[in-house]
Specification:
The protein has about 270 residues and is mostly helical. The chain starts with a helix and ends with a helix. The protein has helices at about 5-20, 25-40, 45-50, 55-70, 75-85, 90-110, 110-125, 135-145, 155-165, 180-200, 260-265, and strands spanning about 240, 250. The protein has eleven helices and two strands, in the order H-H-H-H-H-H-H-H-H-H-E-E-H. The chain is about 60% helix and about 0% strand. A two-stranded antiparallel sheet has the order 1-2. The longest helix has 22 residues, at about 180-200. It folds into three domains: about 5-50, no CATH class; about 55-200, no CATH class; about 215-265, no CATH class.
Length: about 270
């Protein structure tokens, strides 16, 4: 192999390493790798910029705008309020969430759909006392499976269609050419999650939220050498006490954070 191949391999490995072991966003890492190959002469300018003219990538960008429009106009909030409603139990909540998520993902691209749904679903789960891990994972599965039903449902289908048009020519895939494969997959995922989700999905609750919906925050403090607080526990140092109304731990502040204490002393 020539030096161009070795440099390309090093850039690819470096990009994967940076994405795996650093907090740098993937777009910056990829753009940096592309710039390095362009500056070094491995890629010509037209080759480096060819991906930006791919119809699949441009379609994904347009779909992000569509989803943003749905969010700003209140369509997503309407879905959460009128379609999700008040579920009777976890399985009912999963069914009411996965069905609209799968349908929307088939026509709007699944990635922005999940990004828009997550904050609304978090609030919906907290309001209905649902375990968030048993809700968000089915949301992800439903969006992935729903996205396989149409050409624009997932960016993968669009990219493959763009490669197909560039390599073979012709009109490419039609809107519902993938439905005969994607629809059975989506139905299978839907039924599997409903039948086995409660048993297989983890039950993870937010440890920083108590039964009254009061959120506590973790605070770090550095005790310097020679300080009067050195060697003292949190309670002995006077940094935390217990609420007289519910015996829950709280920071020593002027006004107790417990709602029951505030209601009783209003």
């Amino acid at each position: 192999m020539g030096w161009e191949a070795w440099l390309t391999l090093a850039v690819v490995v470096g990009c994967f390493a940076l994405m795996a072991f650093t907090w740098i966003s993937a777009d910056i890492i990829m753009a940096g790798g592309l710039t390095l190959l362009l500056v070094s002469g491995v890629l010509l300018p037209e080759e480096a910029l060819a991906g930006f003219s791919n119809q699949g990538m441009l379609t994904v960008a347009v779909l992000y705008i569509v989803v943003s429009g749905l969010t700003e106009t209140g369509a997503v909030a309407w879905i959460v309020q009128h379609i999700l409603g008040r579920p009777r139990h976890t399985r009912h909540a999963q069914a009411r969430l996965m069905a609209p998520a799968a349908v929307l993902s088939a026509f709007l691209n699944n990635t922005p759909v999940v990004a828009v749904f997550v904050p609304a679903v978090k609030e919906w789960a907290q309001r209905n006392n649902l375990v968030l891990s048993k809700i968000l994972i089915p949301l992800s599965y439903a969006s992935i499976a729903g996205g396989t039903c149409t050409l624009i449902g997932t960016s993968t289908n669009l990219v493959v269609n763009g490669l197909l048009v560039n390599q073979i020519g012709g009109p490419g895939l039609a809107m519902f050419d993938l439905a005969w494969i994607g629809l059975p997959i989506a139905i299978s995922v839907f039924l599997f999650v409903l039948l086995f989700g409660n048993r297989l999905l983890p039950e993870r609750r937010d440890p920083l939220v108590d039964g009254n919906g009061i959120r506590e925050y973790t605070t770090e403090m550095l005790v310097e050498a020679g300080s009067p607080l050195q060697g003292s526990s949190i309670e002995k140092a006077g940094l935390r006490s217990f609420c007289p109304a519910c015996s829950s731990p709280r920071l020593n502040v002027t006004a107790p954070s417990c709602r029951r204490w505030n209601r009783g002393n209003a």
